[in-house]
Design a protein that fits this description.
With 391 residues, the chain is of the alpha/beta class. It has a domain at 6-71 and 102-173 and 272-348: 3-Layer(bba) Sandwich (FAD/NAD(P)-binding domain). It is 36% helix and 26% strand. The strands form four sheets. It has a seven-stranded mixed β-sheet. Strands 8-2-1-12-19-18 form a six-stranded mixed β-sheet. The protein has a three-stranded antiparallel β-sheet with strand order 3-7-4. The radius of gyration is 21 Å and the shape is globular.
Length: 391
């Protein structure tokens, strides 16, 4: 169906590169436009759960993921202040061949970019698009330099501040959640960092840590509730002192890690509504452009991978573009809304204080002794789903 079809993807992030390869493998002629001078990623680590790994496997990138990522055997929840482990949730209940992996974001971008180029995708850098004009056919892009680019089907994988989303839905202002997040990586020797994902929880704050690059790096994401607004940007940096002060009541191990942080990244966490329109007038959106999510379920990149596969499959299966795009949104919208809400609920659970915290931690200790599998089983709907096999 897609042989020779001209498709333009705006944004060379996880979702953009994945959908570019998925479409090119089905015969499309794909061009990716990226505003940066090079394909790079300023973030740190991310987790690829089995539902995301299934997409990479289907795209022929499973071996690359296995080589670049570290296998995660379990997630552990800790009382950040006392240093007590409350519960360990092992992933040994997963179906054979399915695993959680931690990977540096830059390494995931690199393997996706290599995969896109290998499939014949053209990647054009320094293409900063300021305006998307829909309504006439075909769509037109206007760059910051004033140049106009005519496209075939346009796919907006251009993130939180998507110009394609704006063209389809208008502008809707997000609201600040009252939470900020720091990110950092620390050099380590292999074996120094426990292989599990650890979540250290305290009143109004929590810290997540796990190893990257074969244990040579410790990844840290730390979240604090605060009233002061912080810009929604991945490129801000912060003095390490506010980070250390935010976790000064945590256990010595956590404070020791933060004492080594020199220049943490900082970004404000905002809630965006799931877009009402994911397609129309020769354009479609995916990933953060369609459904930004808070980072408390580690599903942002994974949901973008799922979107990429489903969008490409729908376009390949139905020769009528609008029908294919409508089916794509219908297949994805309910699932991503559920994931977005689950991520928000996790934020509340991690930051309990007072009596609610005491009760919650007692419940985790009890569940850890009696039925730890049940706690993780609440998310089987998310991790066990495989969009590459779904009808």
């Amino acid at each position: 169906m897609l042989t020779g079809r001209e498709i333009t993807v705006l944004g060379a992030g996880v979702g953009g590169l994945a959908v570019a390869r998925a479409l090119a493998l089905r015969g499309a002629s794909v061009t990716v436009l990226e505003q940066a001078p090079e394909i790079r990623e300023v973030g740190a680590g991310l987790q690829v759960s089995p539902n995301g790994a299934a997409v990479l496997e289907a795209l022929g990138l499973g071996a690359a993921l296995e080589a670049a990522g570290s296998r995660t055997p379990a997630v552990e929840l800790w009382d950040g202040e006392t240093g007590e482990r409350l519960i360990r949730l092992d992933f040994d209940h997963l179906k054979p061949g399915r695993a959680f992996r931690a990977i540096h974001r830059a390494d995931l971008i690199e393997l996706l970019a290599d995969g896109a180029r290998e499939a014949g995708v053209r990647i054009r850098l320094l293409q900063e698009v300021s305006e998307v004009r829909l309504g006439a056919h075909p769509p037109r892009l206007v760059t910051k330099q004033g140049a106009e680019i005519e496209t075939g089907l346009l796919i907006g994988a251009d993130g939180l501040h998507s110009v394609v989303r704006g063209a389809l839905n208008g502008t809707v202002a997000p609201f600040f959640t009252g939470q900020v997040a720091w990110r950092a990586t620390l050099p380590c020797t292999p074996g120094e960092v426990a292989p599990e994902v650890q979540v250290h929880m305290g009143p109004g704050r929590h810290l997540v840590t796990y190893p990257l690059r074969g244990g040579r790096l410790r990844n840290i994401v730390a979240v604090e509730e605060r009233r002061r607004w912080v810009e929604e940007s991945w490129s801000l940096s912060d003095d390490p002192l506010p980070l250390r002060l935010a976790f000064e009541r945590f256990a010595p191990a956590v404070r020791g890690w933060l004492d080594q942080v020199e220049a943490p990244g900082l970004w404000g966490l905002f809630r965006h509504p799931v877009a009402a329109r994911w397609h129309g007038q020769g354009a479609a959106i995916l990933g953060d452009a369609a459904h930004p999510t808070l980072p408390f379920l580690a599903q942002g990149a994974v949901l973008a991978l799922e979107d990429a596969w489903v969008l490409a499959a729908c376009l390949a299966d139905d020769p009528v573009e609008e029908q294919a795009l409508a089916r794509y949104q219908a297949l994805r919208e309910g699932r991503v809304r559920r994931a977005v809400e689950a991520a928000s609920a996790n934020a509340r659970a991690y930051h309990l204080s007072g009596i609610a915290r005491d009760i919650g931690h007692f419940g985790l200790r009890l569940a850890g002794r009696v039925a730890p599998g049940r706690v993780l089983g609440r998310f089987d709907w998310l991790y066990d789903h495989d969009v590459t096999q779904a009808g």
